[in-house]
Amino acid sequence: MKSFGLAAALCAFAFSIVLPHSAFAQAALSEDADASHVDAPSRPAAGAFAQRYFIEFRSRSAFSYGHTFVVFGRVGQKLTAKNVAGLHPRGDSALTYLIGHILPVPSETGASDGDLELEYTTARYRIMLSAADYKAIVAKIRHLQANSPAWNAATYNCNAFAGNIAHFAGLTAPSPWMLPEDFVNTLRQMNDGAASAMARSAHR
What we know:
Layout: H1 4-11, H2 34-37, E1 53-60, E2 67-74, E3 84-85, E4 88-89, H3 94-99, E5 107-108, E6 121-129, H4 131-146, H5 158-168, H6 180-202
Antiparallel strand pairs: 1-2, 1-6, 2-3, 4-5
């Protein structure tokens, strides 16, 4: 598996963590297609999603090695920046990002440019939630956002932030020292059974 650190060294000169790169883009998708596109653990009957909630772990392309973040909300609602959380260097300076591979730098935990543009999405893993579980997970996300640590590629990166959310949701998170796409795909592979149980509970 590719090393997160090696990718950092190779790609650091070309970074904009908040700017997607169309060369890595997949085919564009609409939010209305989410439920069928994602490798969802299970699916209720048509029309049953009206008041269903979800959290989705995503990775997207960028000029560097990409970015991992979470999207959450009610199925069918229009997603906005308020429905996105992910750890990344503050601002859009490439210099801040480069320094962050050596020293911790100030971070942000909201949406970054390209997060909701599905043509840049490289991996997705959606978990269906009950209203109670969704409320608890969102509260945890807001707590992490309010107490955001500094960003550092080697000690606490976007994968580690998403991994904390995954752990709180009862999932097993892979190592944060992976490329974002690998992180999300491995998260899905590690949790298919647990996610199925969560989804069945949410559908009751």
